[in-house]
């Protein structure tokens, strides 16, 4: 399947059946819906063989500050519930106090492993509100950078996934390769993370001279590494024992629970916004959507490993076909005048000053823009009241929704396998809690 | 269960926002609308959130839709048909709305977030608790009348007690 082969399929949904199966999902008692006070009472009841145990919020395998409340029978998980909010910093409230220009500095801090995607979805939403066309080069730079970001994010996943299951070697190699990508980011954006690089209207700066060499070096070095990862992990019997058949989810359940990204694809459902609801220039590049078969932890690992290879294909095409031209729109509404103009024109100076202090106004309206982040559908919903600051800015975080699958895939499994499953969801708590 | 309800038969106002299709059900036919949407392929609830339009209650939403303070915004996704649809439900402060968790289990965390941040109550939600803030928190921070809270800046040479 390539990006160009995508025709809508008409399906006839049996609503009654679907609602009945979704009600079962709700009533099957896999989610531990208990308040803290009730949990304390249950935990204090020693006659019961079940116990309530917390994993996290400070647990090395919960990727930050995720806490999961488990109800255990021996070592088997009966019910569980992810408890989130430990990293909540009110970023959506903050966004209401920042201009559209400043907005990217805020949203980029949400998903700190794949920052460019939040910037991208925010920028796409603002551009839709403004009705702004961006230059071709800006589109391709965005595509190049986000695909590199997808690679770095998945490399981080391989590292932490390996670490969680005791493959410490993988952790070192994964971090090392990710660092190479981040070094390239640093040369382009000035920062390793939290770039504030993709902005409404284009990108913050053009690619520097010699960027081709940097990308070519990454592309040359990585395939060999990925083959090594295959030997180290994919083909290794211990790794397969720990991941195959663990944390299985069906397509039906994944769709009902709103799961997207590698979790949905691991069930065999080829859903990738880059191909199915394209944005940027994705219809013009060739890539495959990687899918799994069984919906288990191993599939989710294998999908991410192979998505790095697909991202490299896209990056290669960006390298070959990078158009020349402007890296941001010349619409003076959002782009300040060129530096040279400021020296000769008072109006230009005023204009420059206004853009960076007051910001630019965005026409009234509301819009939703979604991109395919390494974790799934990353959406941005913006409501503008016609002022330079959004009335409401909401980010639909993929991890926030994906976490809901956890109780459903953990039930009946061992607590030791829970670590593998949590890791395979690849949650980034900054974007869960926002 | 009754037969699927036809979207058009519900007589819901439709509008378009920057090329994106929007439906405007009210809190009474909101659940029926979600079921009708499901029947035509919108099987995933991609996003559910709310907006506080305090001080903008005179805004124009769509023909025949009376604006209220709150708006519940539901983004539905039809994966087979590759299209999106947005529902915008007008709500007064304190007005409850039926939960759609039994139709879209994905909405469980999202409705909890909308309750946590805006104080919107969802009738029939299986776990109607705060999700991001502590259980003891007072207020709903994304409401426009929720104070941001500031720490006053102390200048060294400023007159004291003034």
Mind explaining what this structure looks like?
The complex is a heterodimer of chains A (434) and B (162). Chain A is mainly alpha-helical. In chain A, 50% of the residues lie in helices and 12% in strands. In chain A, the strands form three sheets. Chain A has a three-stranded antiparallel beta sheet. A three-stranded antiparallel beta sheet of chain A has the order 6-7-8. In chain A, a hairpin with a 2-residue loop joins strand 2 (67-73) and strand 3 (76-83). Chain A starts with 14 loop residues before the first helix and ends with a helix. Chain B is α/β, with parallel strands linked by helices and 162 residues long. Chain B has a domain at 11-123: Beta Polymerase, domain 2 (2-Layer Sandwich). Chain B is built from two helices and seven strands. Chain B has helices at 30-39, 107-118, and strands at 13-17, 20-24, 44-52, 70-78, 83-91, 97-98, 122-123. The longest helix of chain B has 12 residues, at 107-118. Chain B is elongated and about 70 Å long. The model of chain B has no long low-confidence stretch (mean pLDDT 85). The chains are: A mainly alpha (434), B alpha/beta (162).
At CATH level 3, the topology of chain A is Cytochrome-c3 Hydrogenase, chain B
- The CATH C-level class name of the domain at 11-123 in chain B: Alpha Beta
Q: Estimate the helix proportion of chain B, in percent.
A: 10-25%
- CATH homologous superfamily of the domain at 11-123 in chain B? NADH:ubiquinone oxidoreductase Nqo5 subunit
CATH topology of the domain at 11-123 in chain B: Beta Polymerase, domain 2
**What number is the mean pLDDT of chain B?**
85
Structural class of chain B: alpha/beta
Question: How are the strands of the biggest sheet of chain A laid out side by side?
Answer: 1-2-3
Q: What percentage of amino acids of chain B are in beta strands?
A: 25-35%
| Structural class assignment of chain A | mainly alpha
